[in-house]
## 1
Amino acid sequence: MSKTALIVDDSPTMRQMVAFTLTNAGFTVVEAEHGKDAVNKVTAAGKMDIVVTDLNMPEMDGITLIKELRKLSAFKYTPILMLTTESAIEKKQAGKEAGATGWLVKPFNPETLLKTIAKVLPA
Amino acid sequence: MSDEFAQFQEAFFEEAAEHLAIVEEGLLALEQHPQDLELLAKIFRSAHSIKGASGMFGFNAVTQFTHKMETLLDLLRTGEKAVSPPIADLLLKSTDCLKTLIEAVKSGVAVDDEVVQRLTTELATASGAQPPAVPQKQSVAAPTQSDSQERSYLIKWTPPEWLFQRGLDPLQVLKELNGLGDLSSVTLDMTRVPDLAEIDPEKCYLSWELQLLTGKDQKTIESAFEFVREDSKLVIEAQPVASSECQVASQNPQHEIRNQQPETVEGGLKPLGAILVESGVVSPAVLEQALSQQKRVGEILVEQKAVTPHQLEQALNTQRQQEAASHTKKTDTTSIRVDTAKIDKLINLVGELVITQSMLSDLGSRFEIKQLPVLLERVAQLERNTREIQERVMGIRMLPIGTAFSRFPRLVRDLSTKAGKKIQLVLSGEETELDKTVIESIGDPLTHLVRNSADHGLEPPEERLDNNKSEVGTIRLNAFHEGGNICITVEDDGRGLNRDKIVAKAVKQGLIGENEKLSDDQIWPLIFRPGFSTAEKVTDVSGRGVGMDVVKRNIEALGGTVSIKTVTGKGTTFTLKLPLTLAIIEGMTVRVGKETYIVPLLSILESIQPKAGTIKTVVGKGELINVRGTYLPMIRMYEVFVLEPEYTNPMKSILLILETEGERVAVMVDEILGQQQVVIKSMEQNFRKVEGIAGATILGDGTVGFILDVRGLLEIARHNTPVAA
């Protein structure tokens, strides 16, 4: 069975690019526009193998989403990658405290994305 | 930039345009509510999204500029800085600049670096930063040395206790290390593991001592610990290498071929005026004035009698056509973003259509006459499917008109500051949907009408107060559906049109006779005549005498109409009535001989059966018909298209009175068949352009029907030349 990934980003372009890369790498992708949307979608979809989330989003930001996900038993140990921009690197700390597994600094290319995912994805 | 991501550029441009609109709208709203933190957060997010995504495509100029905007917005968002009019103004200007930057990467043209630099500095100053340092190079994954000598490293790693709670797995790190080289020894240190009773299974009590033989450098090894390094106890020691000779080779010469591009040199030369202004020889104002005295080439040539005004007009026409052609080419490549729900629904419907089709072919293969009711039922079902699919497919092209309205808050703001008037803009009906092409094409006419209202319609504050009106003038833009059309109204509560001025001007231009008694409804449309402007002074905003006629022409090109309602002292309302789509028109089917033609419904005023004696022939003007006192040119369709008609006697046939661009013509046909919606198929694409025919369509019985081009017919009436079929 293919692995599942949840992609959370309010920018459709970013979402499309990440989804495209992951789909090509054999993932089944679920997309969400923001934290709230993501929480709703995982309630419906259940477990995910990995979560890739943007931080700055309307409705519910990435940090809050990570905290919310960690509260769910299905997401307690799920790797969660956050996408940050260089200027928001200080958010890394907040993200780690919230329970983010790792991070990826924008801009990135498909190879870096897949490499980083490989880093945190349990075999 | 990654080639794989390049295909998403179009999506980025579309998204960026949306974000820009949000930023602009937000900034305008911010002027009213400077304390609105939610609004600020929204603006910030949009800027942030543009920054993030533009970086992905390597649009560094955009990324860097947005970053500067974002920095300032962040200060506003966190309340460290208050929103002031100069800051709002600066941000608005920056938004414009950002728009230009994005436009520039899209089309590949160079941008005015000076403006970008100036705004960048201003933004930095406003953010309280030092003048911008040299833009930093985007750091994309540090180059890894791959061919250096293998070395042995001793790694001691104690991960943080909460490792598991972040979804991290020490095994992952070990695996990655193993991938870098040969993990020759792994020693697990379990001394910190407490007694079983005290163990918290969610905590990590382990630490490792590793021996790694690898050709990679220390940095690469560290990157395996990327997400835990700061919280771990980590020691990486390079072991002395056995052989000493390779020490020399450690300085790896880097043949980094840098793509040194010269700092964007603009392709063309600078115009003389620009150089003179830059060197301070003349002021921009002087240059402007000098340029305004410059005559156009055409005017000079006419003066020198090198060309006749008629030849010039023809040349200008050609130019316009080429311009229009290049414009259509440009719009051809645009994409449209469709809600997936719309597509899902459509796929569903196509599925139903396929089922209906297979039911029909099943029935057809063993059809007996007693099954006729079943057949009729299936056909009715097919009809339902088709109709619904048609509606949904049209729906794909439908966008809310709000996208066309969104430019107006900014426009009105700028106009009100420029004209020194207080103007309030009220938008409604933004959610009304219509065809994307129509939305794109009504932007300019609407802009013109709004400018017109702001400049001519609304009075200055003092005058309004004198007339017992509120100091603030209002312009209302409203959109709504009416029948199969969409109506857009531009309404102002200004002084209204001045009947006397219009009449005086029209008499002067010879459009009407001096003592002609005309109703208001006949007077107002005069302002749509070319070259008609009653504005006393030419302003920067409008009133150059061009415009209203262009508005009308553009709207009519879309198959729409413009009408005016005005009350002196109370205000003016312009109503644009447009078809929902350009692909389908509402038409009247008429018959001439054995042929069926479709006349666009919007152009039909009435149909009459002429009485004897109302038709006169005037030398050089062809036949004229007297319709309630007005003589209109009459066209016999069968003559134009060289057909065998049923009636050659006008008393027996029917005359359709058609109108386009204020001109009327009577067209003689044999019979009116009915009214129906027809899908336009282009003649140019499938055959060639035929004078008097706007397009073709396939009629219910499968035959081809031609759609009349009313404007073309008028031309034919003027020249009296039949079309060779």
## 2
Amino acid sequence: MTTVSQPGIKDTTQELARWARLLRYDTLRMISNAASGHPGGCMSMAEILTCLYFHEMKVDPQQPDWLDRDRFILSKGHCAPILYAALARKGYFPVDELRNLRKIGSFLHGHPDISTPGVDMTSGCLGQGLSAAVGMAMAGRIDRRDYRAFVVIGDGEMNEGQLWESAASASHFRLDRIIVVLDFNALQFDGTVHEVSNPGDVRGRWKSLGWNVLEIDGHDIPQILDALRQADECRGRPTIVVAHTIKGKGVPFMEGDYLWHSLMDNDLLTSFVKEMHDELQRDPDGFDADRLW
Amino acid sequence: MTTAAPKRELPTRHAYGETLVELGREDDRIVVLEADISKSTQTYRFAEAFPDRFFNVGVAEQNMMCMAAGAAICGRIPFVSTYAVFGSMRACEQMRTSVAYPKLNVNIAVSHAGLTAYDDGVTHQAVEDLGIVRSIPNMTVLQPCDAPSTRKAVRAAVEIDGPVYLRLTRIAMPILYDDNVDFQIGKAIRLRTGGDVTIVAVGDMVFQAREAAERLAAQGIEVDLLDMHTIKPLDVDALLDSATKTGAVVTAEDHNVLGGLGSAVAEALGEHCPTPLLRVGLQDTFAQSGSYGDLLRHYGMDASHLVEAAQRVMRRKQ
């Protein structure tokens, strides 16, 4: 499932890191173009999404409706830009379309919808994605198909009651084809998760509901790949990968600042995007330069 | 129009539960989701027949609604069963965003419509649901009045490529139609032809309207009576034909007069054919616990009140 190796890139980890960096660039450029969006949470999940789309998930952009494909639900739907970047880079639609984020007539809506090529589930109203995954996994079980349903949730979503309804159902129905990754950057729109609403013992909450709980550094690619492998091997219960991340990761002025949950200063972002563009253009092996826009 | 003499009575939720089993036999794409009230919604019948395609999620309607969305995206045809209060309100945003926006074939079958929940009281009497659901794009909204038309409605819902909200009664309804009733979504059924006043009724209120029409006939007033089982898309043609002919319209719904059938009819008449109109239903109030008959009388929704409304609206004819 690994993409064809690029010249000059030594191994999978290094290659995935390059993709993650490119997705960060795409995402920031899209948000800067649109002058609207949610960069912080996109940056924190860049490695997670890269590992899913460029390594773990069984998908085929040439057959977006392939029945046996793994499903992906971005439950934290406000991070649509980085999903669109991944889909474009996988080949679901031209990278050039990324210029049209949030513009009328484009299928790159503010939040994901199934009308976008490659998007498996409408999302953006928090707390609903895991429920949809439960429905997908139960359909897969009836149909005797072995696809998995991957869900990325945000930590702010743990405020939503429905998330816990769906967590109970996934476990109750023993849906081991569900793999959730919690992008635990510990910041939400109005502050830290502790300031806004007590998240409690996150591991314990999921464990008590019968989930297989793994805990990793969500920016460490080997750890992500290893957790996804363990999740795939787990039988009889769903898995959640609690991925500790940094909101705004990769953008110095954004890192750890909850105010960058949504776009705070587009001049600052735009100049950063220009710098990043120049830096990527200078890359020695042509990986990025050929893909820039 | 085919009608049969009333033989027996059946809550429309029972007709729903029976039809689900037939459908389950005919089409293995059908799955049923339930929120811990299967004996009430009658989905227990499907659960017994097809345990592998039945999912009781517990008292978790929001989760259930989005599960249905996920199953529909993967090629299943889900029926979501709960009470109208929870289907339309507890899980409203889930229905709107995860089901209606992506236009999925999810069928939301809800029992305990309006005052048919009678002595359960306000908590379980959905009197706002038609207005809420009707305002959501892509939704089809149905309330058949009796068991045979409900059976047809359940089947029609499967055929509609998009979400359907199907409103059912807790209490038994007389059998009005025979099994060959020509039930078509978006096509009102004319139960009586008359030139003096139009009564447009939906669901359980069809029976009050029939009785009112008989009483009015005894006074020499001929009612054009429409069973408007589809609230959305409204059969505007049938409505305008009738209103043009009679020049006076009464609506009858077991629902708040804000947002439901009365509003839909007022919108259509106002735009196309302004006609004197009276809306019979709950007059923007919550009801209370009580017997169904007592509640209809108390809130001005029984046949006598419909007779009065018809007489009043006729006096406003030009």
